[in-house]
Amino acid sequence: MRHADPIPDPPSCPLCDRPIPPGTKQSRHHLVPKLRGGKGGPTVLLHQICHNEIHATLTEAELARDYSTVAALRAHPRLAKFIAWVARRPPDFHSRTPGARRKR
């Protein structure tokens, strides 16, 4: 009798540490924005809500200059507050990010 392959664990969002189950809104974040030289550079898979919050908080210039690592993003005061809030939500939680998106 052949055993079924175990179902792999879903990837985790490196920003909030919650799993990203199949079907959850998600997107890839360029650690250095494409418009600031990051095209083809490293990316991370995030919940869409986490990705939206990054871009609502920081400009492309700030991302390229000071926030090009997950550790730096997690240390930003507004993002740290967001992470503490969203970490209490279910892994598939999504809502609109309030406010306008920051300028590129």
TrEMBL record:
GO MF annotations in UniProt: endonuclease activity
Q: Where is the composition biased (Basic residues)?
A: 26-37
Chain positions covered by the region annotation Disordered: 1-38
Keywords on this record?
Endonuclease, Hydrolase, Nuclease
Tell me yes or no: is Nuclease among this UniProt entry's keywords: yes
PANTHER family for the chain = HNH DOMAIN-CONTAINING PROTEIN, TUDOR DOMAIN-CONTAINING PROTEIN
Question: Which protein are we looking at?
Answer: HNH endonuclease
Question: According to the entry, what is the taxonomic lineage of the organism?
Answer: Bacteria, Pseudomonadati, Pseudomonadota, Alphaproteobacteria, Rhodobacterales
